[in-house]
Amino acid sequence: MKNLSLSALAAVGVLAGMTAANAADLGGNCCADLEERIAELEATTARKGNRKVSLTVSGWVSQQVAVWDDGQRTKAYVSDIGNTLNSNVKFTGSAKINPDWSAGYVFHIEAANSQSLGTSQAVVDAPAGAGGSTVNILQSFWFLKSESLGKLSVGTQSSAGDNAALLPDGSGSLVPANYILYEANAFFIRKANGTLSNVALGSLAACATLQAGVGADCDGVPNNNIRYDTPVFGGFSASASWGEADIWAVAGRYAGEVGEFKIAAAGAYVENSGQTDPNVLVSRVHAANFQVGAYVQHTPTGLFVYGAYNRDYNNGVTAGGKAIFAGKPDGDGYYLKGGIRQKWTPLGATVLYGEYSNNSNKQTLGDWDSGITSSNLDQWGLGLVQEIDAAAMSMWFTYRNYSSTATCSTKVNLGSCDTGINSGLQDFSVFKAGALISF
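Structure (tokenized):
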């Protein structure tokens, strides 16, 4: 990140040096040269609209190569690394009102060229991956902050539960290895006979009640809301938010050190109290999700462990006054990762890890309607992340394998399911090599 005030100081230093160098030069070209240099600096420096509010520009650029194997076909894609993690730029501003209060804003834009969440066998020959190039507004909000009372934010932003269980992961491997199926979400699973089923991997790890998110990331997309964050007291903090469509969330967090251990933990509960828009088909009454995550690292050795759990509550989810998940068990998902983080080279920290996750009975509404009465998705993986401190960069090499099972029984007057999946489903694997460079 580069605060533009630093650029201003650098400009002053350059001009001061030039003035000192030309102090004894009484020629008539000194002022012309000075004005030319000032114009050059102004032309190459980002500007603020006023001198009262600071401006910080930050973000990263990220891309990766993903080589996948669905049991019958292998192909390599060059793609983004996933929605909300793609290449992005964020503009942050803040101004001091008095010693305790400040006001500011965040404007955050994401650029996607090949969206990994939508990539599947269907886009094998599409050079732009899934959906082509898009630009999304991730966040756009203003805030008032008191050092003693906390922070109030209004606008498009993360809710209190957004990625709550994900963010405690301080291993340095969070981006390439997390509980979201970024690289496998839309790929269809092959049946035992080698033909493609109509079931996608991500549809067996869906957040059915909120109709958003995949894996354990059931409140993972910014929305329009009002959010309050407490100050940090002894490492503890809390958040609460309420957004459009009556979605509300609460969360608690802790980060600190105990002896030789770094510890971070968070938990959140999010609930959709019911759609207020009559044009929305699904009235998600009391649709809810609970998530919790924790990270522990032994500082001297660099050994770490991270775990997360979430439950998707299906009771009370209705459409047209009828329960649309009647009889469906609540969906459960958990994720475990362990490894070591050490600075073995002058480049920066090296992270070696292994991971495992499971999603049970998290099939989508469409799959439930078509007759998938139970499902299970297991995932394991290994990876290496190398940080390059001098370039604010990290590179990764990861491998993942997905195994799934599903039971299908066609329901009367509803969609028909592919009963061939009862005979077994083939594994899906993917190798990723990519990098992220921050600015």
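The chain has two domains: 1-47, 55-438. Residues 101 and 246 are 30 Å apart (CA to CA).
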